Structures are given as structure tokens and as C-alpha cells.
Amino acid sequence: MSLNWQTIAEARGKVSKETGTVVKDWGGRIPVALAYPNSYYLGMSSLAVHVIYQLFNGQPGIVCERTFFTKGQPISLESQRPLMDFAVLAFTLSFEMDYFNLVEMLRQAGIPPLAEQRDERHPLLLAGGPCVTANPEPLAPIFDALVIGEGEEVIPTLAETLRREVRAPRLELLRQWAIIPGLYVPRFYRVEYDGLGIEIEHEPFAPYPIKRQWVRDLDAHPTTSVILTDETKFGDMYLIEVSRGCGRGCRFCLAGFSYRPFRERSVDLLLDQAKEGLGYREKIGLVGAALSDYSQIDALTPGLRQLGAQISVSSLRVDSLSETLLEALVEGGTQTLTIAPEAGSARLRSCINKNISEEDILEVTQRASRRFPQLKLYFMLGLPGEREEDIEALVRLTQKIKERFSGHLIVSLSPFVPKAQTPYQWAPMTPLPVLEARLRYVKQTLSSIEVRSESAAEAAIQATLARGDRRVGWALARTKGKSLPAWKHALARQGLAYEVLLEERPRGTLPWKVVDNRVSKEYLWQEWRKGIKAQNTPPCPLTDCLKCGACDEVFYEAKTVTPPR
User: Side-chain half-sphere of 331: how many Cα atoms within 13 Å?
Assistant: First the structure.
């Protein structure tokens, strides 16, 4: 397949504007293509891309180059080679809707999407990311291996085995990969279906279930921007991961359950990383699930300001937002403060375990009004237990915020999508007509406010992928485009009814049981039942906790976690 010279020129142009790009001679090295199935602009905004790129290139005998989704044949940026030239094609996946781009990338590269159609002539296909860890089954027919958990714990052993077995037959290499903790090789697991029920058999050497791997000491794995470029969402800043995981326990949140337990980096390490980053950018972007929960935030932010850094943050909790952090954001030139009430009524926030009061929200609004020209609110529609009066409460709360905030207000609406490995993995998705009607009502009622919304139809497709099994993967590999009618047709060809996939799941019909997420299924079930009753669960960790199972005794006793304030 001949390469388009315009595509080559575009790749070279991107690399020419980067700082930190790793370019290696291929001689004697195993080539790995790191693939992000969306645009360069979005992919280079993801710290995961930076981390994995650095991890692979840090392994002896490996050369790792990047590739992104384009309209034509995908090539690597660093050497402008076609993907068929690589030994391994490693995808990092954060969003289920990118699965469609993934399949199209393979087709454009001349690589059959289904693993059973590939042989020694093709690259090995590898994938990881939060949605893969939660439920790898929709991707099982496509990939040779899937990383369950955090790459820092898996990639070094994976790469060492790849070097040792590079000349071995593919099946033998995959047998060696299958025994690596956190690496799932689907061909060694056979599944049978009875409706939505699933039975799994596996080869004796293949572990079952596959345990999610996680980093116990974040300081041992610094996570920062590796490649800097202006052609990305965060082009004006140097990103640093401050913490990983979240102990709040919001029942809808995949990240909150897939990255347990909550872990923090030390202030000294973060300041050292910031000193390095300030050599490239004036602004430091702090990344974490809830930055205002970082136990040393009131020490970190003054330290960054003393270094002369402007500060930006990824997310904030209204009930732990300190004055020190607010002032640092103002001094750093932040124009938009973003908060996430998620639901309009106190009852519905209790259902989802979002333990913030209306008073908390309005108090932060008052504080923001004096400091920021723009305030952005995130709400979800279609949450389990949602009633018409909750939509009215959302409208009233937004109007109260508008009365107290003097600047520009933006409301962002997202349809709720039930995710595997959360308490809502059993929950039904609100029917599409109901979601669309509620979206229209909020937009019309708040016509004087800027309201943005995600597509309800795309959310429904996302839900079938998030909780799908291998039959969904077969449909994915054989479909083109991602319109709802086309997707319904593709599912029907596999004997799956789209509407059934969105219904409430019986307790024993979870295809992702091949994964041990380290949060016990009984704990998740109890949280699901508590959500129905609008009962709160306090944030973790608490004294003598260990209730969900995510922590082990060694980690817990080391006291490396701190309760949210």
C-alpha cells in the first residue's frame, strides 16, 4: 500500500513543532506503534499517551512511535512508516466511541480487524485504558492481548517477554504473555452465551480472573508531559499528575472505581517536576480526579507560585475548595472555573453518592463570581432514580446560580451511561426518547443561558459498548460508521437486540467477570442497592476500612492515603 506524500508531510510538520520527541534508529530494535484512535489534538492532550510512550521507549531494545486517527492511511509520526511495518500496535483507549475509529484505523492500514483473521504477517494488537480494564470483552475478538490495570505495572514485563520471545511463533509468545499479571489474552478463554448470561472456560496456564494491576507508590513513577506542542488542548501548559484514583465513591464514576485506592504524590516530587516543566512552559497543569482533595494542596499551590508558575487544574470539588487554591487559579490567569453538581436535587445527589449540598454549590458560586469571568457546570441526565421533579430541580438550581454569578455561565449536559465495574453496572439506561425530551426541556427552559449537550443517541451506543460481550465486538469489527440505525443493524446480525442491552442487568449476567477489579462484587451490589434508597456512603479511606477490597493490608498500613477533607 503506497503512502500519500501529503500525509507524510503532515506527520513531519507535527514532529517539527514538538519538543521531547523520541527518534530512534530501528536497527536491532523491536518497533511498537502507540496508537490513539482519535485526532492528534485530543491524543496529545492525554497524559496516558505521554506515559506509555515514555514507558515503551524506556525499555531496552524497543523503539516506540505514535500514530493517530486520520481520514487516510495511518502512519507513524516519527519515521512516517505504515503500521504494517511494526511488530506491535498498542492502542490506548479512554472512550468507547473511539472503538469505531480503532476499527477504521485497522482497515485503512490493511490489517484485518478480527484477531482470527490475522497471522504472523501482521502486527500483534495490544490495548489498555480505563474502559479496557473495566470491560475488555467487546474488544476480545479484535485484540491479541489487553492490559488490565495501570501500564507502569505491566509494560516492562510485557516488553521483556517480547524481546525474549520475538523470534518464537506467535502462539508461543502469547502463551508467555498470558501468564504476566494483568495481561489478558482472549484466545485462551472460551465463552458461551445464554441470552445475556455467560460461561467462561480457560486454558490451565491462563489465570482467571485477571487481576487489575495498580501502582502502590506513585512517586516511583513520575507522570508528566513528555512531548510538548502547541497543537493540542493543553499546549500552553506542562501537565503533572498529582494524584490517582478517588475515594469519594460517586456511584456512576468509572475512574473512581477503576483507579482505587486513592493515591497521592509527595509535594517535594511535584515541585521538582514543576521546576523542570517551567523550563518549557509558564503554566503548570495539575491533573487528578479531584485536585481539591489533594491533602497537601495548600502547601503545593504556594510552592508553585513561589517558583513563578501559573496554575491550572483538571477538576475541583465544591466542598473541598480552599481559598489558597482559588487565589492561585486567579493569579495564574484561569478564566473558567468548572464544578460538577451532577444532579439538581439533594435526593438525586444522595442516590449517586455525590455528597455536596445546594449550600456548598451556591457558596462556591458566590466566591467564583468575584474572581472568574466564566463558570461551567456539569450535570448528568438520566441518572438511576431520576424523576421529573429532579429535572425541575436542575433548572431551579441553575437559575439560582445565575442570580449569584455575574459572569458568563455555561451548562454542560451529559446523558448517563452505565459502566462496568461500578455500582451502576446493573442499572438500566434511560430510554432514548425520554433522554431527548429532558434535554430539550432543559435547553428551552434555560434559553437565556448557554447550554451544551452531548448526543443522547451516541450515549446509547456507548452504553452497548461499555457493557457488551464478545458478540458486540464481532458487530464492531464488521460495521462501518457509528450511526444508531447502522449500529442496531450490526448488533441484530449477531443476534443481539439493542434495546435489551440497555435494560437493567440481572446480577449474574456480567461478561466482564473475566476481570477482578479488586473492588468486591458484593460491595458494588450493596452500593447499587443503597443508591436506590438514596443512602450515602462516606468517602474512603476510613479507620479500619478495607471494605471494598481495593487496598491490600500492606498499602493500607503504610498510610499512603489521606481521607478527603
Answer: 16
